[in-house]
């Protein structure tokens, strides 16, 4: 039964996070991008902080010391603020599916950043090929025109790529800081801090907002879905699966989520994914498999051993 439970929860998480890209596209029709992202984490951050206070003992919901607050600062600036600001601004001019596919490059970039920041742990030749294939996939999806590198569609996809890079760099830096901060606490305070940073950026950009957005059912539905389902509920599923499956297997959700983004985007927004985008996604998946080949081999062997006992 645990086998089917894990599969069900994994697919549920992929559906939540994949459909979130569609909710972003829907909400961007009513809210300015950075403010929209900030509002999402105003709600999600409070909910996650409440969960951390409930689930953790001995006051572990509150960071202590310079190292723990440093982890929160990196998470707030890179994992939440930079990632979502780039993503929401970029997704104004690209499809939900294309954005989800570009974001799926994050695990590949994470490995690249990790190797670059730890020279003694350099990538093998095959690993370098994997990173290169991932970047080729991005180039195929973005389709840059050398004669017009400021084209709206290309710049939008470049911003989404920057979102993936911000998340990857933030993931590496949070692991490099020597702090034993529970992941629930780190996520909660990073969400709150990231929301504050994005509010400041939104104010600096003087983002306008139409009063009608606060009463429009689609706008409120998109905001509620992102805050409650994709963020609060989604991260609770993530924490549960992280303990059950481990980091390698949970990373695979990045490659299932675009499928849900594509289907929901087609059904709800009428978005169509072209063959070029699918081809680019294939390069990114192959790149991930090459970069993570040893971990994937060990993970599959471990899963086979567990399931053979049931």
Concise account of the structure shown:
Helix content is 79%, strand content 0%. With 310 residues, it is mainly alpha-helical.
Write the layout of secondary structure elements.
Blueprint: H1 2-27, H2 33-55, H3 65-90, H4 96-103, H5 106-117, H6 125-142, H7 152-176, H8 183-205, H9 217-245, H10 247-251, H11 253-269, H12 275-291, H13 293-309
Could you describe the 3D structure shown?
By secondary structure, the protein is an all-alpha fold. It contains 13 helices and no strands. The chain has one domain. α1 runs antiparallel to α9 and α4 runs parallel beside α7. The termini are close together. The mean pLDDT is 85.
Poorly predicted runs of 5 or more residues = none
How much helix, percentage-wise, in residues? over 70%
DSSP helix count? Answer: 13
Mean pLDDT: 85
Task: Assess the beta-strand content as a share of residues.
Answer: under 5%
Shape: globular
* Structural domain tally: 1
Count of distinct strands: 0
Straight-line N-to-C gap:
9 Å
Main sheet characteristics: none
Radius of gyration: 19 Å
The secondary-structure element order is HHHHHHHHHHHHH
Helix/strand-derived category reads mainly alpha
Search tags:
AA-Vitamin_Transporters, single chain, 310 residues, mainly alpha, transmembrane helix, 0% strand, 13 helices
